[in-house]
Design brief:
Oligomer: single chain
Strand content: 15-25%
Low-confidence stretches: none
Number of helices: 12
Largest sheet: 7 strands, parallel
Number of strands: 11
Distance between the termini: 63 Å
Structural class: alpha/beta
Helix content: 25-40%
Radius of gyration: 21 Å
Shape: globular
């Protein structure tokens, strides 16, 4: 494969994917609305075509102009987008849809491709834009990929769990880095052992490329860190990367109520473990980054940015009330 088209490509996963493709000698075109800063604006190896991917005419013009060998769809948030793209890029050697671990509709440990049930999706959910239907829409996008493959399209799906790393505009990990950097005591919901599988963004990028090159049409591939960590372990890894130490204070639901908080107010908390099997992707030759390295790079990027995760902040004053109560127990 020589020519790659990235639908998206300027933010987070797409940005790292472009860098991954350039490292492997692809000619890269990105297709975006131009609403976000283009980090490749001065890079003559990357061509930028501006347009709205929900406009089929604009996407068709791009398909004709670029004639890509591989298409990576990073910003398909509605099933109709996937249906349109698999039709317009039916002749590509690979169409790879960025789905999500949220597409799974059954709580199993681990969640496996082709075995664990996907979320259902109603007609109303297909066109919804709320976070509540995100998993439903991603699951229906997967089904659109499978249907396209049955028609002979070389379409595949990649399902990341929660993605973290440099340039993460969601700032979920940044919240915890900021807490560890600013305070000696860090409040963690529950008993600190809850697990929500995460995926380092550079590994997601390499997974997308590898699936395009080696994946099977009609198949989905999970991607996530090969070593899972609890929330408390995550805090300890962040502290190590910051060359500091903190006291991790666990707080159950009753203790959190003293600060009018609940566990779900904190990023990365999930009452039931969310774990994806990555064996199928590993069979293609994919490998994940050493966890300590991934955290070190994420922390270094955080320190160079102005991100602090404030949008996820449950309120330090409320946390202090809980910490004060726990100190007297």
């Amino acid at each position: 494969m020589e020519r790659a088209l990235v639908i998206g490509g300027t933010r987070f996963i797409g940005r790292h994917l472009v860098e991954e493709l350039l490292e492997h000698d692809y000619d890269v075109t990105i297709f975006t609305r131009g609403t976000h800063e283009n980090p490749f604006a001065e890079d003559d190896r990357v061509t930028h075509r501006e347009g709205d991917r929900t406009n089929d005419s604009a996407l068709e013009a791009t398909a004709t102009a670029v004639d890509p060998d591989a298409v990576f769809d990073c910003v398909a948030y509605h099933p109709k987008d996937v249906r349109a793209a698999t039709r317009l890029f039916a002749d590509a050697d690979a169409y790879v849809y960025v789905s999500s671990g949220a597409a799974y509709g059954s709580e199993e440990i681990p969640k496996r491709e082709g075995e664990t049930a996907l979320e259902p999706c109603t007609t109303d959910q297909e066109t919804d834009d709320s976070s509540e239907t995100y998993g439903n829409r991603k699951a229906e996008g997967d089904r659109a990929v499978f249907a396209a493959a049955e028609r002979g399209v070389n379409a595949m799906s990649v399902r990341p769990c929660i993605v973290y790393g440099p340039h993460d505009y969601t700032e979920r990990l940044d919240f915890w880095i900021d807490r560890v950097n600013e305070y000696d005591r860090v409040l963690v919901p529950g008993d600190g052992t809850n697990v929500w599988h995460r995926a380092y963004v550079e590994d997601v990028a390499s997974a997308l490329r590898i699936v395009a090159e080696r994946g099977e049409p009609g198949e989905a591939y999970n991607v996530g860190d090969r070593r899972l960590v609890t929330l408390e372990e995550s805090i300890e890894l962040i502290a190590s990367a910051l060359d500091t130490s903190v006291e991790v204070v666990d707080a159950g639901r009753r203790e959190l109520e003293a600060g009018e908080l609940e566990p779900a107010d904190f990023p990365f908390y999930r009452s039931y473990p969310h774990v994806l099997s990555t064996a199928k992707l590993a069979d293609l030759g994919w490998e994940s980054t050493l966890l300590s390295t991934a955290v070190d790079r994420s922390v270094a990027d955080h320190r160079e940015s102005d991100r602090d995760g404030a949008d996820h902040d449950p309120g330090r004053e409320a946390e202090e009330r809980v910490l004060g109560i726990l100190e007297t127990m």
